[in-house]
Amino acid sequence: MRANEEAAAALQEYAELFALCGGDAFRVRSYQKAAKAIAGFPEDISVVDVRGVPGVGEAIAKKMEEFLQRGSFRQLDDLRGRVPDGVRRLTRVPTLGPKTAIMLFEDFGIDSPATLSEAITAGRLDGVKGLGPKTLANLLKGVQELEQSGRRVHIGVAMSLAEQVIASLKAERIAYAGSLRRMKDTIGDIDILAVAPDSIMDEFRAQPYVAEVIAAGEKKTSVRTTAGIQVDLRVVPAGSWGAAMQYFTGSKEHNVTIREMAVKKGWKLSEYGLFEGERVIAAESEEDIYAALGMQFVPPPMREDGGEVKAALQGELPALVELADLKGDLHTHTDLTDGVASLADMVAAGQARGYAYYAVTDHAPDLTMQRMTLDKALEQRARLAELQRDHPGMRLLHGTELNIAPDGSVDWPGEVLREFDVCVASVHSHFTMSREEMTRRFITACENPYVDIIGHPTTRKIGMRGVVDADWDAIFRVAARTGTAMEIDSYPDRSDLPSDLVRLAKHHGVKFSIDSDSHAIPHLDNQRFGVGIAQRAWLTTADVINTWPLDRLLDFLGR
Ligand code: DGT
Ligand code: CA
Ligand code: CA
Ligand code: ZN
After folding, report:
1. Which parts of the sequence belong to the Helix-hairpin-helix DNA-binding motif class domain (predicted)?
2. 318 in any annotated domain
3. N or C: which end of the chain has fewer CB within 10 A?
4. Ligand closest to CA 364
């Protein structure tokens, strides 16, 4: 829901500016919480009263109503004027808080990640109070991460934009290709193909999401959207649809290999078709092209020139896990901790998806912000047991998301953990330990007999925080031995584990759980992104514990 997302983004920005101006931390949190609730609200707030959203009181509702009318609100305009752009740019550096940003700006004239990196490298910040050598090293690393993430966006942002573009245009056929179709976790630009009259280009340029036309041709138009993302629209002949999809889906490396095969047969493969001289061998359908080359159809997420061509020629491509194979979700939150929907509503949403099982895994006490207690967890367990009666077809599992402390221990002792149906354990703090310490930390968690799943293992947040440094080979070896699953957290800015580490873990014999890590009902849909990661790593249902029937899953969980 676009209105909800945009209003939530404005409120989130307001919360950040408010914090930068030294605003009360309690109010900052209540703005952030309301922003999350609005983003995750299942109804369109431009249609229903925003006061119906949990956590939205009168003051926030007024701001949101003004935003819906004119795209901003007075208090946001004020703060945008008060906080210099330089300070705002600085706070995008991971680990750099508002107080430090203001100090760097006022005392040293540092007004961007680039000037910060120069100042650190030149030693200009050596000996400054509060900025020890370790802090400076982390800031430098943060600037590098920010630069690397560059202009790429995570798949969640790209997918909703691509779907919006496709819905906005009239065409006989229209689809996205490129890295988005390959389900990469970050996307450079969005490639859309259409079979349509030439007038589609005028229609495209006139869309409200277009900020700037980069290149306008008869067959291809490139624009930059208001969100800053480039979209390429290409019109292709109906008879070449399959060849064009094949060509523009890529990857380039996969296509080079395929094209060489065609050349060896004395043929030519282009975006218009597979040809022998003038004769068309295949062009209209992608399936026909792969078949004519004597190979199995290669699913787009596998097209990375990572052995898939050879396997397809030998008829040995694995049957990839698909979204429809998932029988449940093993990592979800409710409003008992930082979710925004009630237990009953989340469970009903799981039921509506036709799950065979559904686990509720709210945060555990060591994440002190969430104010969890054992009493609250036990009370939730009792309520879940009551709800179970209303959902005879779906097994409700009472779980928790534990915090892995720096020494690898978790929130509760064995006798408490034992009573949960499923324990996810995750790192939520102390991200910058040494490689050895971090490796030991994860291994200790895997060796805990009650830890079933390691949640979002690398802890990365795309564009915000990189992967923690650890010896993944060593961790995966232990996980395989102890029967601890690794999570594929499907929340798109996490996408964690990333697909290359999934492939490595599979090599060691590790099993996986593809979870949504939902904090709101619409997040349940994110599992499709986790399935994309799994497919890029060649996983089958044998590798993914939440495709298994309930009995086999319970066996794995060992309760
Ligand atoms: P991105 O946008 O960086 O996330 O990655 P892609 O894979 O979407 O790359 P992009 O947008 O540059 O091009 C889309 C696809 O079009 C690419 O995967 C393969 C195909 N393609 C584009 N340019 C070339 C080229 O020069 N040679 C070949 N063989 N294929 C190309
Ligand atoms: Ca692209
Ligand atoms: Ca492109
Ligand atoms: Zn977590």
Report:
1. 48-67, 88-107, 123-142
2. no
3. C
4. 4
Whether 387 and 305 share a structural domain:
no
What's the pLDDT at 150?
Answer: 63
- Is-contact 522 492, C-beta < 8 A? no
156-186 residue pLDDT tens: 999 999 999 999 999 999 999 999 999 999 9
Residue 22 lies in a domain: yes
Question: Residue 33 and residue 54: Cα distance in Å, rounded?
Answer: 9
User: At residue 503, does pLDDT exceed 70?
Assistant: yes
Does residue 402 have a cis peptide bond before it, meaning omega lies within 30 degrees of 0?
A: no
The structural domain count of the chain equals 5
Per the structure, the complete domain to which residue 205 belongs is given by 153-235
Question: Cα of 94 to ligand 3 centre, how many Å?
Answer: 29
Ligand 1 site, residue 273, Cβ cutoff 6 A: no
- Amino acid 443 reads I
What is the DSSP code string of 150-181? TT-EEHHHHHHHHHHHHHHS--SEEEE-HHHH
Residue 338 included in any domain: yes
Q: What is the pLDDT of residue 177?
A: 98
Lowest mean pLDDT among 122-126, 480-484, 534-538: 122-126
**The two three-digit tokens of residue 318, written as one number:** 């694995």
Q: Atom 29 in ligand 1: which residue has the minimum CA distance?
A: 252
